[in-house]
Amino acid sequence: MAALPSGILGALDPTSDRAVFRQIADQIREAIDKGRFKEGAKLPSESELVEHFGVSRMTVRNALSILQSEGLVSSEHGKGVFVRPRPPVRRLASDRFARRHRDQGKSAFTVEAEAAGSKPEVDSLEVREEKPTPDISARLGSARKVLARRRRYLLDGRPVEFAVSYLPLDLARGTQIAEPNPGPGGIYARLEELGHRLDHFDEEVRARMPSPAEVKMLRLSSGVPVISLIRTAYDTEGRAVEVCDTVMAADAYVLAYQLPAN
Amino acid sequence: MAALPSGILGALDPTSDRAVFRQIADQIREAIDKGRFKEGAKLPSESELVEHFGVSRMTVRNALSILQSEGLVSSEHGKGVFVRPRPPVRRLASDRFARRHRDQGKSAFTVEAEAAGSKPEVDSLEVREEKPTPDISARLGSARKVLARRRRYLLDGRPVEFAVSYLPLDLARGTQIAEPNPGPGGIYARLEELGHRLDHFDEEVRARMPSPAEVKMLRLSSGVPVISLIRTAYDTEGRAVEVCDTVMAADAYVLAYQLPAN
DNA sequence: CTTGCCCACTCGTCTATACGAGTATGCCTC
DNA sequence: GAGGCATACTCGTATAGACGAGTGGGCAAG
């Protein structure tokens, strides 16, 4: 049962005071880093590793769980443990909301994804009025009721981002912003048509591990953090006209910003 | 042996098809979220949980390891498992490199930390000449040799950030930039004195789980991702004069950016 | 009173075993 | 040939037990 897992992995050092399961994790990690296991490749099965290292299965599983929490591998029930492939990354440039990008009929997400050769989708669209959290309310200048627009973005069938936009109700109610489809150029174009010429955006970027709900919503494998981005849009009067709370799969994004030096 | 762990935790649902260890994790997570276990508080010990839920110790440890990988709790050998306190967060504003902040003698990190009432430290400072990786070389306009400045930043004794600055060797060699202490205003002030007036910075932000080396260097507890920030500084001639590769403990930072709307 | 040791408690590591559930393959039947 | 089933693999879940190692409090000896 179970042939040798090839000569890729070495032996344990019994004199080391490093825990056995850490030594095993180290060996597999090194093999992955050095390319001896390629992206998407299947690792030796647990029972093969048990035989190779002469340890119990729990020890092997312990080692694999380290690598899983590091985001290096992911296991698939009934199939095996695989080196986690690095998915194509979506680059968010800091000029992505520039006015010049709002002319076309399609949304920024759609245009950009198609340009990159991916199939974009938006789902679980929900628009409703609600009472904001204290944090959202404060960001919107103590708004007491808001319009919330929820949606999930997918690339080639994979969910990559979940976003909620909040707008003061007095501003959005009855306009096309309150419709599921906000029309060409998105809600920012509608806001400007309503006389709220946009001045600038503030963005706050954080990273953390996902909640179970986020794991489900973004179908995250373990060891993948999320980027939390909270953007506030201000009009030229200095009023906060929108807050967008976005949670992104961290392995699918790189954010790019340009800062002036003076 | 082990009194009742108080009435904070309920019972398992044997009819549920959700795994027992997940149910236990759910219960503890909910108790933390609802504030029934406060920040920094000690959870019931493993043996208390074993008794309370009537399961084996491995099952309890499995549940706790979920919460640990979510960054909710951290265990301390010999003491117990504790609700992970949220450390004070350092906010990086997008104007932190503005020229007007470079007048004072102290570094931006020092000034800012002292203003926030924390004790800043910088250690493991190392300055050396080396051959850049292909990525760094490309960012610096195919530089073949670079000056690398490595340092680690600490707040109140806790390491929060590790940074490496790379500068083209022909630009930095023999200047104060090659000294451990680059002088007032930091290397950006020196670069401008050398005639490289800074024009803008590009920043790339990513998030991922830390490597074992990063866990050690930043003393990260499990379930804490890192933010990787790669900044390139350009002078008014359009030349890339510095690349700074920074790894930050994600639970200690929030990045703030301001984007123009046009 | 102080010092130092011991013990009880904590989590860390590891073994051995068992069964369940998802996946893939190939053979056998129709 | 097509369909379905048996089977052998994969990882997932759970039990029971053992010993090690870090921490802190209490007790006993000085």
Automatic annotation (TrEMBL), chains A, B:
Compositionally biased spans, kind Basic and acidic residues: 120-130
Region (Disordered): 102-130
Keywords annotated in UniProt: DNA-binding, Transcription, Transcription regulation
Domain of life: Bacteria
Annotated TM spans: none
CDD domains the UniProt entry points to: WHTH_GntR
Domain HTH gntR-type: 18-86
Pfam families attached to this UniProt entry: GntR, UTRA
Family annotation (InterPro entries): Bact_HTH_transcr_reg, Chorismate_lyase_/UTRA_dom_sf, Tscrpt_reg_HTH_GntR, UTRA, WH-like_DNA-bd_sf, WH_DNA-bd_sf
PANTHER family noted in UniProt: GNTR-FAMILY TRANSCRIPTIONAL REGULATOR, MANNOSYL-D-GLYCERATE TRANSPORT/METABOLISM SYSTEM REPRESSOR MNGR-RELATED
Protein name (Swiss-Prot/TrEMBL): GntR family transcriptional regulator
Species of the source: Streptomyces spirodelae
